[in-house]
Amino acid sequence: xxxxxxxxxxxxxxxxxxxxxxxxxxxxxxxxxxxxxxxxxxxxxxxxxxxxxxxxxxxxxxxxxxxxxxxxxxxxxxxxxxxxxxxxxxxxxxxxxxxxxxxxxxxxxxxxxxxxxxxxxxxxxxxxxxxxxxxxxxxxxxxxxxxxxxxxxxxxxxxxxxxxxxxxxxxxxxxxxxxxxxxxxxxxxxxxxxxxxxxxxxxxxxxxxxxxxxxxxxxxxxxxxxxxxxxxxxxxxxxxxxxxxxxxxxxxxxxxxxxxxxxxxxxxxxxxxxxxxxxxxxxxxxxxxxxxxxxxxxxxxxxxxxx
Length: 307
Prior knowledge:
This protein is of the alpha+beta class.
């Protein structure tokens, strides 16, 4: 699949020029004008603090911030399988290094779905700790991770199981190597018009293997300009191809999306960046609006008051 562009945009403001391009290139021969392939690496995400856990649970499951906090609190208080959840740190302290492999072992023993990833972590001669350990960024509480005690997952309800799964996989993933991709961009010219095709293929799953992804996976469309990422065939510069099918699509630009609880939490966390007053911005620089422990309650109050 290739998307027409003129070097700057791939959108036309009127239907007639688009239909003229369709008429011109349909069924006509074309040639690959350029082909560029670049390697890309993607590092594993950091450990969770409460706000990032709430945002992720909202994105994946539609959980409200209070629903995520309630499940995480139960996993800490009642089931003893997660550490203290009301934290704003995404790092661990130096004194926790010795318990990291035992914790991975407990996660691996808790369910077969974590066994391979846990085995990899346990087998490392030296854990990669650069993005995990930072004493300066741990204040009252460290990042949310599984505990190093026994994990009885059969006692968890559905919400608790989902939150445990997020934290367990994130904990294991942070010790895995980067995922490696191959990005390909092909420019094809047909009847004077240029079309761009993008492809992105996973070469090494790395940390994404913890989430069940495998090498040779393609990543779906996720670009603002609607250019799909796909698995492309082997091609070379100057190769002759045909335009088998072409269509013009009528679309409308979209206004900014409404806040979800996840994006609202993010906006609260970084609210100081939106403040023009220098003194107020400095006061909010490291805090935003509220704390990880109070943001869920603030959102709930606004909803209850029908604001």
